[in-house]
Amino acid sequence: MHARVFVERAPVSAPSVVLVHGLGVSGRYMIPTAEVLSTEARVYVPDLPGFGQSAKPARVLGVEELSNSLAAWMDSVGLEQAAFVANSFGCQVVVELAARRPERVTCAVLVAPTIDPRRRTATRQVLRFLLNIPRERLSLLPVAFADYLTAGIYRGLRTLRYALNDLIEEKLPLMMMPVLIVRGGRDPIVPQDWAEEAARLVRSTRLHVIPHAAHAVNHNSPEELARVVLSFLREQHEPDLILQSGEIVSL
Fold this sequence. Notes:
Blueprint: E1 3-6, E2 16-20, H1 31-37, E3 42-46, H2 63-77, E4 82-87, H3 89-100, E5 105-111, H4 122-132, H5 140-151, H6 153-165, H7 168-171, E6 179-184, H8 192-201, E7 205-210, H9 217-220, H10 222-235, E8 248-250
Parallel strand pairs: 2-3, 2-4, 4-5, 5-6, 6-7, 7-8
Antiparallel strand pairs: 1-3
Helix pairs in contact: 1-10, 2-3
């Protein structure tokens, strides 16, 4: 797996953070957040198999296989465990990893986690994806378009099918580590009711809402997201700062 690494600015003792991208794209659109986080964390941004600059397996990998690939990549770079920040479909991969291999995940930030069970059809997801496009920064469009072309239509559609068949709501209760859910207030793909339900399903979690952000919070609101993530990471070392489970905070 290809990965971008941002480790030069943070001290050696800084936490390791892995950023996991969404469906069809690569880790490139995570870079704005990675750059901000890298002042206080050692940041890794891999491309999942089949996407970006990583190898393209002949057979499209499902959620479990992608999580296995992520764990194998961690082994290859010497990461026994890490904090994870994932967006969209990447949240499904990280939730799978956390549920099956909890020792690898110290904590997780799920940014706009998919898929809302009440809207789990390809038609609804595509329509909401189209609604989201004009709400994103224009600079995302060439990055995403190039990544979609690289992945290919078949891989994208097949991965969407895997995403639709993945019941994230059944796995969220299995996450025993601290979890933070972040939603953009203008995100049509992850509505508020689903974000709140997801937060209730996890034992130790809360929900942050960034009002002006769309679905790709890591690209359209990197400073705000990084501030929330870094605060969350500090809390893991200062338990007295942790808020009550399920609390909703707007920035």
